[in-house]
Design a protein that fits this description.
single chain; about 220 residues; 6 strands; about 35% helix; globular
């Protein structure tokens, strides 16, 4: 029945309104978005040889691999900001489908969404990372662990902070419920955008310290350059 539904109700780009053949986003837009290529597999920072960068060799992060779909820019900004700030939760499915096409899913037992602080969740009405994670989990057929982590520190906006300030800002920001991770040895942390990786680092450190999880990946729809 899927083909019949597609015939009567063909997909339509949520940004341009034009009909598409597959997803609710124009492939002409997506195909021009820059994607990380020559990057360190662990932190996703640029390297010339696609091998581990010097920073990760000298001071490895708590996560073993980083995978992102695109660099943050162009119409992707409209999708992510529309989800977060304009109450368009339907965009979460579009973002999840775009990310799913870019991921190499190996050795991942479950997905964990990066949490919001309770007041920010209340103001927004949802956690954008969890909405994306819910759709991604269905697409990839991987379980989503809910209510396993929480943000217990109301960290100020990190938009204008450097990497060092972000790490300090996130100190003791998360709590982990170890029992939620029982039976899982490898998880992927999911966020909408990665900037310096400080959030992923803080959360991954906490999870590894308090659970039996052995390997962690950092996943995001986009990464800032």
């Amino acid at each position: 029945m899927h083909w019949l539904e597609s015939w009567f109700l063909p997909p339509k780009c949520v940004l341009t309104g034009e009909f598409t053949s597959d997803k609710d986003i124009s492939p002409k837009l997506v195909n021009k978005w820059p994607v990380p290529k020559k990057v360190c597999p662990q932190c996703c920072e640029p390297t010339s040889d696609c091998l581990l960068c010097g920073t990760c060799l000298a001071n490895p992060p708590a996560f073993e691999r980083t995978q992102v779909g695109f660099y943050f820019g162009d119409e992707l900004v409209d999708l992510i900001h529309g989800l977060k700030y304009q109450s368009k939760p339907a965009y979460a499915r579009v973002l999840a489908e775009l990310l799913a096409d870019k991921l190499e899913v190996i050795n991942v037992d479950a997905i964990v969404a990066v949490p919001l602080y309770v007041t920010r969740f209340r103001d927004r009405g949802f956690n954008q990372a969890e909405l994306i994670a819910e759709s991604l989990a269905k697409t990839l057929h991987i379980p989503l662990i809910k209510q396993a982590v929480s943000r217990v520190k109301d960290t100020p906006s990190q938009t204008h902070l450097n990497a060092r300030q972000r790490r300090s800002n996130l100190k003791n920001a998360f709590e982990v419920k170890a029992d939620k991770f029982e039976g899982f040895k490898s998880v992927a942390l999911l966020d909408d955008v990665i900037t310096t990786g400080a959030t992923m680092q803080s959360l991954a450190q906490k999870i590894k310290k308090q659970t039996s999880v052995e390997t962690i990946q950092a996943w995001a729809v986009a990464k800032t350059k």
